[in-house]
Amino acid sequence: MASQKPPLRYIDIGINLGDPVFRGIYHGKQAHEDDLKDVVQRALDIGCRKMMITGSSLKESHHAVDLARQYPGICYATVGVHPCSTQDFDNHPRGPDGLIDDLRKLATDAKDVVVAFGEIGLDYDRLFLSPKDTQLKYFEKQMALALELQLPLFLHSRACHEDFERIMRQNLNSLPKRGLVHSFTGTPEEMRSLVSMGFDIGINGCSMKTEENLAVVKEVPLERLQIETDGPWCEIRASHASSAFLKDGGPTMPKGVKKEKWAKGMMVKGRNEPVTIAQVAHVVAKVKGVDVEEVCEAGWRNSVRMFELGEVASRLATS
């Protein structure tokens, strides 16, 4: 008799659980009751055992830490200022150095749950939110703090590869754990360059919108692949090239309804959540032509290797 396969296990390395929509609040208005506990439980029920909550500003980093402590051993946090929020440094009451000091204190005080420095990087698609010189200045300033703290990096790179690679190469020798470039949407050449430097590639729904995206995903080495949802954004939509892989035999998801018709136990249409990590893994496996078990275990090993996530003693365990 064939032995039964162990249940799939996932790590969602990028989830914005601090977003108000997970409390039922959309555009400042309460549309339905707070269902964060249900969101987390749905993820646990399908085997998503670990989640990394993204910090994108000082305020959101504090929030990520607070949430991580509510779910010990399950949720962890990143600390940092997103490139599109880097004007926060000039607007801080004690200036840029004051914000750096606050980030340092938070990361140090919360080292029980803080597993990465980020989300930091560059985004030249949204210079209207923060100009290039501001992004560059505070990316390098935050990089220096990450090196001081010796935390792996949780990185954002959009339409900026030349500057991004230059800064990464300048700091490689001081980054033993390197880091992850999350929500990757770059070219095959950019992916190969990052992998050659020792960085992992984070794949979510936004990484698989087009056939060109899928060609990149197919080429990402399994030993450098991690998976994420980036919820409440980056869902796999019907218009995406990746959706074709969910039409026949994809993971079953809870029923989704418009937020106005929400009822307990339901997902909300347009609000991505960590349970959909199963869809990400399924599509990646189909694109790469491997079993989904292989994708899940590679993602698990790679995420634990880089971020530990409370699994140091059993990092290669399969149970």
Mind telling me the CATH class?
Answer: Alpha Beta
Global mean pLDDT: 95
What is the architecture at the second tier of CATH? Alpha-Beta Barrel
Shape: globular
**Tally of DSSP helical segments:** 10
Read across the widest sheet, the strand sequence of neighbours is 1-4-5-6-7-8-9-10
Most strands sheet:
8 strands, parallel
Written account of the structure:
With 319 residues, the protein is of the alpha/beta class. It has one domain (10-311): Alpha-Beta Barrel (TIM Barrel). The protein has helices spanning 36-45, 58-70, 88-91, 95-109, 132-149, 161-171, 188-196, 211-219, 277-288, 292-307; strands spanning 10-15, 25-26, 29-30, 48-53, 75-79, 114-123, 153-158, 179-181, 200-203, 225-227, 256-257, 267-268. The chain has an eight-stranded parallel sheet with strand order 1-4-5-6-7-8-9-10. Helix 4 (95-109) packs parallel to helix 5 and helix 9 packs across helix 10 (292-307). The longest helix is centred in the middle third of the chain and has 18 residues, at 132-149. It is globular. 45% of the residues are buried.
Topology (SSEs and partners):
Elements: E1 10-15, E2 25-26, E3 29-30, H1 36-45, E4 48-53, H2 58-70, E5 75-79, H3 88-91, H4 95-109, E6 114-123, H5 132-149, E7 153-158, H6 161-171, E8 179-181, H7 188-196, E9 200-203, H8 211-219, E10 225-227, E11 256-257, E12 267-268, H9 277-288, H10 292-307
Parallel strand pairs: 1-4, 4-5, 5-6, 6-7, 7-8, 8-9, 9-10, 11-12
Antiparallel strand pairs: 2-3
